[in-house]
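Hi team,

Below is the intake form for LVIVD repeat-containing protein from Fervidobacterium changbaicum. Please confirm the fields before the structure is written into the shared record.

FORM ID: S-0412
PROTEIN: LVIVD repeat-containing protein
ORGANISM: Fervidobacterium changbaicum
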Amino acid sequence: MKLRKPQRQTSKSIKVLVLAFIVLLSLIFSGTAFSLVVEKVYVGIKYSFRNYRTNGDVIFIDPFSRKMALYELSSKQILGFYNYIGNFVIAVYDLKDSYIVVDRTGPNLSRMALSGELISNAKFDRRIQSSLFDGDKIYVLLEGGTVYAFDKNLNQIFKKSFTGSPAYLFLWRGQLLATYLWNDNYDVEFLGEQPVKTGLTTPSILANDLLVDTRGGKVYNLATGKTTKLAAYISSAYYDKDTGQYYISSMSNSTVYVLKDDAVMNSFQVPYTPTQVSKIGNYIVVLSAPYNKVMVTTNGKDIMVLDTGDYPLEVFKIGASTTSFAVYCSDSGEVYYYYF
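The structure came back. Fields below:
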């Protein structure tokens, strides 16, 4: 594969593209006056449905226009911009001196220099279903169930197969784990072991130890083997390592559940359909993509509702700050910043 010569620019030549504004608001929240600063930055990439965070940088990928941007959250600068990176790219991993590009329909795995030139690649005979990068090895799952492992130079480490054709690939405590959707016989399989039936319909999210059945509304603890029933159409799950608590949002009843030790500790409803939940310091941040809203609360009772761009997709922490966060809005190609 020969990559087209990209147009790459540095932070010296690109500051923040177009539209930047600051709005100062005085809000009353839980009886206390808060000063809120909101900033909006246009990053030039829309429809980036999967974003990759490395050391404060975010890689935005538009698989339709085949563009990619490396964006620094703290400085609000685009560090690099590429006009062509592959046919239908579903993942890019930052090695700092190069990138690993996962092209689903190529189908291939490529190592790309910062200049955009091809260093090496690995081609496959079937489309790529999923991929993982653990900081050392790249794992690629193909349609049909074959899985490969490569080092950073794309030297093949192994080629193995799952029993069936799984939908998702995860890494749990150093073990490769695949999940199957709508399968009557089995839904979970560790590589090298027999597949098992845990009772999950669509295990699609892994948050620490919890495997989440998004359609069935259940979570299965891989460490304890226990299943907890919540509500159907789970959209997001977040693990807070500081407290050991899980935050899980359901679209069917607009509820966020707080779990710990396989028990529901608390739950609260939000005014708009929740599609993403995260935790920044003491703030629980909930996005509603269809309604373009950001909902913020510290106790699940007093909920601040904020406007944002079109189709808010993901929440990013800004450095070590516990009082600010950023939200990427996919359809408008913007990053909104909220400073409390």
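SUMMARY LINE: The first strand starts at residue 17 and ends at 29.

Thanks, M.
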